C-alpha cells in the first residue's frame, strides 16, 4: 500500500462510453475526476470494427477509434485517465476507499461504476479469431452488415429470440442453433421465432467450428443426438448466450439482481450506497448500446455533482 492514500472528489471505474461520458461531464464541472481504464480500456467497443449507429459519425467509425475520441475529449477537459484495475473496494463508510492494482489506495468522495459487461462466448478458437470479422455478440449493433445474407445465431433464451427476430427483418435467412430440444425463452418469444418463415431452428445442435480465414464463410455443426456433422453456408455468426456484468468486486456492498447487474434507483444512477453511482452496461441488462451507456454516463456525473453540492464537498 502507498503510505498516504490519494484523495479525489470523483473516481470513475471503467472506460467505455459510459465512463468516458461521465468523465467529460465531471471534468467540465470542475470536479477533476480520475478515471481508471480497467483491464479492457475502451470496453467492448474496442473489439467492434464498424460502429454505424452512434450519432455524429455519418460515415461510421471503427470502435477503437471512437473510444480514442472519447478519451481525448475527456482528457481535454482535465480528466486524469490512468491505466489500472480497481481490485477491491470498501464502501462501508464515507469517503469511500478503493484499491487499485492491489496496492494503491484512493479515498473518493464519490465513485462512478462504469465497468460494463462482457459477452459470454462459446470458447472456440475460430470464434476469437473471427470476432469482428463476421462473429458478433450483438445483432442490433452488427446485423445491418449482413442484410440480405444468411446468418446463424446461438442461444435459446429471450435475448436470442429477440435477436433472431431482429436479424430476420434484415437477412434472407437465419439459422437458430439450440443445444437442447427445448428453449428457455418465454412462450411468446418462442412463438415469434417458430412462426417466422425466415428463421430455421436446428434443435440438439452444437457449434463445432466457425469456418473462414479472413471472414466468416460458414459454421460446422453437430447434432448431439444423431452425431451427424455438417456445414452451413453463413456470412455471419451471432452468439446470444448471455452477458456477465463486470461487477463482482462490488458485490459485498452494492445491491444487484440475481445476474449481477447493479440496481439503481428509478430515474437516476444512484445505488444503495450514498455517493456511489452506476452507469452503462454494469446496470443495464436491457438495451446494452453505446448511446444508452453514454446517456447514463452523463446522468451519473450530474448525480455525483449534485451529491457533492448537497454535501458541500464540491
From TrEMBL:
Enzyme nomenclature, EC number: 1.8.1.9
GO BP: removal of superoxide radicals
Keyword Flavoprotein: yes
GO terms assigned for molecular function: thioredoxin-disulfide reductase (NADPH) activity
InterPro entries the UniProt entry points to: FAD/NAD-bd_sf, FAD/NAD-binding_dom, Ferredoxin-NADP_redctase_2, Thioredox_Rdtase
Cellular component annotations (GO), alphabetically ordered: cytoplasm
Domain FAD/NAD(P)-binding: residue ranges: 9-297
Enzyme class name: oxidoreductase
Catalytic activity: [thioredoxin]-dithiol + NADP(+) = [thioredoxin]-disulfide + NADPH + H(+)
Cofactor: FAD
Origin superkingdom: Bacteria
The entry's keywords: FAD, Flavoprotein, Oxidoreductase, Redox-active center
Subunit structure: Homodimer.
Family: Belongs to the class-II pyridine nucleotide-disulfide oxidoreductase family.
Name by which UniProt lists this protein: Thioredoxin reductase
Amino acid at each position: 500500500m502507498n503510505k498516504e492514500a490519494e484523495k479525489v472528489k470523483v473516481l470513475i471505474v471503467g472506460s467505455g462510453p459510459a465512463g468516458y461520458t461521465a468523465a467529460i461531464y465531471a471534468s467540465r464541472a470542475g470536479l477533476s475526476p480520475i478515471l481508471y481504464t480497467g483491464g479492457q480500456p475502451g470496453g467492448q467497443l474496442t473489439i467492434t470494427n464498424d460502429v454505424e449507429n452512434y450519432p455524429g459519425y455519418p460515415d461510421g467509425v471503427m470502435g477503437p477509434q471512437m473510444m480514442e475520441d472519447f478519451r481525448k475529449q475527456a482528457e481535454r477537459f482535465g480528466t486524469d485517465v490512468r491505466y489500472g484495475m480497481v481490485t477491491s473496494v470498501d464502501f462501508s463508510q464515507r469517503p469511500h476507499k478503493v484499491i487499485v492494482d492491489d496496492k494503491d489506495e484512493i479515498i473518493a468522495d464519490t465513485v462512478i461504476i462504469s465497468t460494463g459487461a462482457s459477452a459470454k462466448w462459446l470458447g472456440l478458437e475460430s470464434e476469437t479469431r473471427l470476432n469482428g470479422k463476421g462473429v458478433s455478440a450483438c445483432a442490433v449493433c452488427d446485423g445491418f452488415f449482413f442484410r440480405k445474407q444468411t446468418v446463424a445465431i446461438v442461444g435459446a433464451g429471450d435475448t436470442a429470440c429477440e435477436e433472431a427476430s431482429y436479424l430476420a427483418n434484415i437477412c434472407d435467412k437465419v439459422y437458430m442453433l439450440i443445444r437442447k430440444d427445448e428453449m428457455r425463452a418465454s412462450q411468446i418469444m418462442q412463438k415469434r421465432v417458430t412462426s417466422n418463415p425466415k428463421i430455421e431452428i436446428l434443435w440438439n445442435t452444437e457449434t463445432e467450428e466457425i469456418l473462414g480465414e479472413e471472414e466468416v464463410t460458414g459454421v460446422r455443426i453437430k447434432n448431439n443426438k444423431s452425431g451427424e456433422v455438417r456445414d452451413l453456408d453463413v456470412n455471419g455468426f451471432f452468439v446470444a448466450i448471455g452477458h456477465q456484468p463486470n461487477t463482482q468486486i462490488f458485490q459485498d456492498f452494492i445491491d444487484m439482481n440475481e445476474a449481477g447487474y447493479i440496481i439503481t434507483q428509478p430515474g437516476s444512477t444512484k445505488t444503495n450506497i450514498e455517493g456511489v453511482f452506476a452507469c452503462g452496461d454494469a446496470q443495464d441488462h436491457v438495451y446494452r448500446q453505446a448511446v444508452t451507456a453514454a446517456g447514463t454516463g452523463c446522468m451519473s456525473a450530474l448525480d455525483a455533482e449534485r451529491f457533492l453540492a448537497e454535501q458541500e464537498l464540491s
